[in-house]
Amino acid sequence: MSDNGIVRIYRMPGGTNGQYDKVVAAAGNVIAAGARVHIAGSNSSDLWVIEVWPSTVELTAWQETQVAGNAAQAAILPDPEVIEFNLHRLLVED
């Protein structure tokens, strides 16, 4: 585990921005408590979500509180392929 956190990339084959919006609405239309970054978008074939977390502890804690969001995700979106890696550096423009 990196002291800098973790990055998770979710690829949902066939997922759409509209489906994503429904899931986010069910979860309260807010960035996940504890997340540093949340990015979502799609291309012609897949929905992609990228998240940066301080650690897997914060990620797991958030997921366990999101009963409605988790149910909506399971009902609306395809099962994601997940890539996870340790964050080395995060640069953002002020």
| Helical content class | 25-40%
- What count of structural domains? 1
Poorly predicted residue ranges? none
The CATH architecture is: 2-Layer Sandwich
Overall shape: it is globular
Q: What is the chains' assembly state?
A: single chain
For the record, the CATH class is Alpha Beta
Q: Which band does the percent of strand residues land in?
A: 25-35%
Main pleated-sheet profile: 4 strands, antiparallel
Radius of gyration: 13 Å
Average of pLDDT: 86
What would the CATH topology be? Alpha-Beta Plaits
Please list the strands of the largest sheet in the order they lie side by side.
Answer: 2-3-1-4
Number of helix segments? 3
Summed up, what is this model?
This protein has helices spanning 17-26, 56-65, 67-76; strands at 6-13, 37-42, 46-53, 81-86. By secondary structure, the chain is an alpha+beta fold.
Task: Lay out the secondary structure.
Elements: E1 6-13, H1 17-26, E2 37-42, E3 46-53, H2 56-65, H3 67-76, E4 81-86
Antiparallel strand pairs: 1-3, 1-4, 2-3
Helix pairs in contact: 1-3
Highlighted features:
94 residues; alpha+beta; 4-stranded antiparallel β-sheet
How does this structure look, described?
- It is built from three helices and four strands, in the order βαββααβ.
- By secondary structure, the chain is α+β, with helices and mostly antiparallel strands.
- The protein has a single domain, classed as Alpha-Beta Plaits (2-Layer Sandwich).
- A four-stranded antiparallel sheet has the order 2-3-1-4.
- A hairpin with a 3-residue loop joins strand 2 and strand 3.
- It is globular.
